[in-house]
């Protein structure tokens, strides 16, 4: 009984500590809400650059306030309106143009075997210019295209990407690892990151700056930049260049720091760009027929 | 002292309950993690269709497992590889093609004044086919394009979108509401939803089905479908049609039910499509110059 009496204050202290911990906990949970962020958070202890990315991650999923047209914002409303009359084609021309463009883009494939041959720089410039014509939420144009042709920088990028990929594959494989090593090795070796004449790293700007110095949230920045990537892929295909769409999420923070991009920018995609290698192959895949992707009402 | 002795088992029970609660809590937090979901959750009490959407929202932000190339998946690896040799253009042709494509797409603008004139159905089919050539995470092709030309259905869509827009504007304006009514009214009236010959509603499939009946998560479905939208916008511009990019997030669930789409599909964009009206105007906006969007290393 005396022992129990002695235990009482101890239990009371433990209870207070536990309750205090619970009250503090929810706040932490809010800032590390998504699975991805939890993963990053876990990594943050050993990787200092991730902290900065977390601090500045003000990206916000759309709320009630920002639904609707992307042109529906004050800046555009204050803007003068001008007549708009793009070229109009006769119906048979439209049909032919729609067929030709489909034929062109239907030849596009993700290609991992890229030729080291140089590609004219002006062509790349025009491809990036074209990507920059995409629409964006409130016309924020929240994209930065980092075009890397420097051999040393390409190699540094490769090392970061391969290190992360190796971690992914090792974790994924678990016990099967040792036996399947030889087969798997090809999966995390990204030779094209050294070989391709250009690496295009596409960053989304999650926020901008207002004149008063405050942050301006870039709504829909990921969708906007992804649309821009779609146009970029079309522009590459149009000039006979190839790429493979990759989203190296886990190495984004390291690559951002390597490329000296500010904290409001996050890597969305990494595209190695060049001519296809003369012995390039692609998986024999087909695309869904129109009836599987379109419903007409 | 006797009182303390009596309190000891009580405190011990309370401590156990609190610890048990703490252990259960994290699991709940994971399922309602994003801000958007919280917002939807709040709305769910008054909007029954949202519940179904929430139940089936298995969209997952990318984890360690799915980083890297989008072609990097078992299905593609098991696939036979075939040679790939797309057309190769001489350098001056490449340069000219890159300029022409930039000129074409730089003419694209978001247009809200759409002509009611009919547009050939086959052109729309080819535009959707072209959008379907986009790359997607693990080649899941996680998109459904609902093309609406039915007058009655277009009007129903308009009513849903306008109702949500009105709510948004009223909430946004607060007290300024009454005085600014006349000016603002134009903001939530979307006449083009009745007028445009086609409304294209683009759904992302957040998951698919595995042969064993289980759900297959579609990683990167939003990025994939957004890329597809970028290609769709290019295809529209290529045939002289216009649209305005809109992301009517709040009415997504209602529109999904109206259009009888399954619960794994979520509305990403709504594009009214047609020729521009003869008196169409656009805000006098400019795009960032190349140096502001591109960094060369």
How would you describe what is shown here?
The structure is a homodimer of 297-residue chains. Chain A has 297 residues and is α+β, with helices and mostly antiparallel strands. Chain A is 50% helix and 14% strand. The first copy, chain A, contains twelve helices and ten strands. Chain A has helices spanning 2-31, 35-44, 48-55, 74-78, 91-106, 121-131, 151-173, 177-188, 192-195, 221-238, 252-258, 290-293; strands at 68-69, 81-83, 143-148, 198-205, 207-209, 215-217, 246-247, 265-273, 281-283, 294-296. A three-stranded antiparallel sheet of chain A has the order 3-4-8, with helices on both faces. A two-stranded antiparallel ribbon of chain A has the order 5-6. The longest helix of chain A has 30 residues, at 2-31. The radius of gyration of chain A is 25 Å and the shape is globular. The termini of chain A are far apart. The model of chain A is unreliable at 24-52, 54-67, 72-76 and 181-185 (pLDDT under 50). At the A-B interface, helix 1, helix 2, strand 1, strand 2 and helix 5 of A face helix 1, helix 2, strand 1, strand 2 and helix 5 of B. Strand 10 (294-296) of chain A pairs parallel with strand 3 of chain B.
